[in-house]
Design brief:
The protein is mostly helical. Helix content is 44%, strand content 0%.
Length: 86
């Protein structure tokens, strides 16, 4: 675990990834699902949402292998890039 920087009240310096911190949305009893993560990070593109879901749960859903989920995430990212180009 990274050592906390005491220079700020939350223990994070400006260089340590603070831009990735968000207030969690969609939490239920201290838990969050992939849809809460998508809301928290304002992921609105359906293809990107699908890719994130596949990456976060790769091989865990008992609906195919981890490799299959990674390939499907790759395909979804390719589609997201196509959609952004339009």
């Amino acid at each position: 675990m990274a050592k906390k920087d005491k220079s700020t009240p939350d223990g994070l310096s400006n260089e340590s990834g603070k831009k990735y911190l968000r207030k969690i949305q969609g939490e239920v009893e201290g838990l969050i699902d992939v849809y809460g993560v998508l809301m928290t990070f304002n992921v609105t593109c359906p293809a990107t949402q699908h890719a994130v879901k596949k990456l976060l749960c790769a091989g865990l859903r008992q609906k195919g292998s981890e490799s299959q989920d990674l390939m499907e995430a790759h395909d979804a990212i390719t589609r997201a890039i196509q959609l952004r180009a339009k």
